[in-house]
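Standup, Tuesday
Yesterday: got the pipeline producing C-alpha cells again.
Today: sanity-check two examples.
Blockers: none.

Example 1:
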Amino acid sequence: MYGLILLSILLARSPPTHLLSAVLFASVLCIKHIYLYLAPAYFVYFLRNYCMGPNLSSRHLIRHIRFKNCFKLSAAVLTIFGASFGPFAYWGQLPQLGARLFPFSRGLCHAYWAPNVWALYSLVDRTLIFFAPRLGFHVQTAAINSVTRGLIGDTAFAVLPEISPRLTFLLTVIFQLLPLMKLFARPSFENFIGAVTLCAYASFLFGWHVHEKAILLVIFPFRFVSPVFDLDYRLSYLTNCANSLLALKDYRHFATFCPLVVAGHFSLFPLLFTAPELPIKIVYTAMWLVVFLVTFEKLVTVSSTGPGWFLSWASTFFIMLSIPLITYTSFIHGIFFRDKYEFLPLLLTSSYSAVGIVASWIGFFWLYFV
C-alpha cells in the first residue's frame, strides 16, 4: 500500500497522469481508511490542477471549471467507492462499517500511547498527580490508572480537563486547513508534497485514538520534500524515485527530518518482537541510521552559524539521546525491575518520541510557509 501511495504521489507530478494518481489513491483509501489523513491535500490539489487549472486568478476559478475533467475524476472515484462500499450498502451494514472504521468509543489514547500531542498531555497529567496536593489541584482517584492500564477503552484524566472527539477533530481540521490554503492559492507539486506531509502530521498529532504505526504516513511523503522535482518532466518516474532518496539537500529540512525518522522508528519498537529477537531490531535500526546519516550529511550543507547550526546540533543531541533510552527500555529496566512498573518503558518511549515528532512538525510547518 505504501508503494502505491508513493507511486500515486509521483504520478501527481505530471498533468497527464493526474487521473491515474487519483484512481490509485482512491483504491488505497478503500483498502485502508487510515490514508484518509492524506485525502484533504489530494482533494485540493486535484481540484485546482485537474478540475480548475493551476494558473488562473481567484476571480476566474469558477468561470473556468473543466467540466469534462470533473466528470472523469468523479466517475472514476465514485466507481471505486461504489465497488468497495456497494455490497455493504446493499446488505444494510453501512452503520456497522462506520462504527468499525471510526471507533470513537475506544478512547483518546491507544493502549500504548502514540507519540503525539496527547501523549505529552497524558504525561503532564501523570506528573501532576504527584504535585496536585501541593498545588491545590483536585485529583480524580478513579482516573489515576486510566491512561496507563494498557487497555483499550475510555480515557480519563486525573488532573487535566478531559479531551473530547470534537476537540481533536477541530484541532486536526485547523492545522490541516492552514497548509491547504497555501496549496489552493499556489497548487504546485512542491506545495502538494508539503501539504500531504502536514495533513498527515496534523492527523497524527491531534487525532482521536491514533495508532502509533500511523507515523509512517508522515515519514513516507516527507522523503519527497525536495527541489529535485524541479527536474524536467521528461525524466522517468524511476529516475525521480531514485533522486528522491537524495532529496533533503536543505539543512533545515534535513534537521527536521532526522528527529522525525528517529523518533518514528523508535516509537515502533514496542510493537515489534521482543527477546530473543530483540537484538535484530536494534542492530538493524542502528545500521540503517548510520548509513542514512553518513550518506545525507555528505549531501546537506549545514551552516556553521545561525539557525542551521542550532537545528543541526539540536537534531544531533536528540538522536544521541535515543541510545541510553533504548538501552534502558530494552535491557536495564527488565534486569532491575522485572515485572514491576511495566508501563514505564512505554511511557519513556512515547514521551521521547512525541517530543521529537512535535518539534519536527513545528520546524517543518514553519519551513512550509517561510
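Example 2:
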Amino acid sequence: MKFSAAQIAQIIDGKVEGDGNSEVNKLSKIEEGESGTLSFLANPLYSSYIYKTKASIVIVQEDFVPEKPLLKSCTLIRVKDPYSSFGKLLELYDQVRHNKTGVEANAYVSASAQVDSSAYIGAGSYISDNVNIGKDCKIYPNSFIGDNARIGDNTILYPGVKIYSDCEVGSDCIFHSGVVIGGDGFGFSPNSENDYNKLPQIGNVIIEDHVEIGSNSTIDRATMGSTVIRKGVKIDNLVQVGHNVEIGENTVIVAQTGIAGSAKIGKNCMIGGQVGIVGHINIGKNVKIAAQSGVSTSVKDNEVIQGSPAFAIGEYKRSYVYFRKLSDMQAKIDQLEKFIKSNIVQENE
C-alpha cells in the first residue's frame, strides 16, 4: 500500500517541502534509505546521512536547516517532533499490516466456539470447543487454543502460539511465536520406589490486559487456582514462569529468567536477564533485580538487589571490590604465614 508525502503530512500534521506526490510503501532507517521508503531524522548524530540517503521522504524537525544540498529525489516533511511523528506512522503501518479478518483454509474452528466476525484465524490453527475469541483478534497460522479458553479483544497471537484449556487472556495482548500458556506446572512427588508420581495440574492461567510475551516463553498453569499475570506486564523471550506464580502490574522481565512455583512478584518491578527466583517467596513492588542474580529470600518494596544469592546492590558493589582482590589478599596471607612460621622457628632455636 502506497502513501504520498501529502497524505503522510496530513496524518502527522507536518509541512511538505518538495514533491507532495512522492510515494512510499516501506519504512527505513535513514542510513539505509532506498527509493520508495520513508525515514526520519531526530538525532543530530545521524545528520550526515540525510545528504546521501536515497529515501524518498524524510521526516525532519521543523527548524532543520540543511548545510548542503539534498538529493533531488528526497522530499522533506517538517514536524515539531520527528521521533514521535515517525512512531505514530509505525503504529499506523502496524495496524495496516495486521488488517486481516476471516478464517483461512485448513484452520479448524469448533462449532461450539464463539469467534467474533472481525477476528482472523490463520491456516493450520485449531480452535477447540467452547473457546471465546473477541473483536479484532489475530490468530496467526498453526496456533492452538484449548477447550474453554477466553481471548479478549484486539489480542494478537503470532504463529505457533499454544494456549491450553481453561486459560484466560485479556484484551490488547501480544504473544510472539512459540509462547505456551497453561502447560503443566512442574509438580512431582517421590514414592517408595525412588520414582516420581506426577501431581495433576488442574488450575489455569489468567493473563490480564496489555500484556506482551516474547518468543518461546512459557507460563505454567496452576496446580490449583490460577497463575496470574497482571495488567501491563512485559515478558521477554525465553522466560519460564512456574505454577501459581503471580506477577504484579507493569512489571518487566528480561530474557532467560526463571521464576519457580508460587513466587509472588509485586507491581512495577524490573527483573534483568538470567535471574533465578526460588518458589514461595514474595518480591515487593518497585523492586529492581540485576541480571544473573539468584533470589532465594523475600525482598521488601523498593529494593535494588544483585548477586547470587542476591542482596542490596550497594553492599554488593562494596563486597565486589574485595572479591576482585581475593587473589592478592591470598598472596599476602601466604607471605604472612611464611613470615610467622619463620619467626617461630627462629625463636625455638
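Quick observation on example 2: The chain has a mean pLDDT of 93. The chain has three domains: 3-97, 102-315, 324-348.
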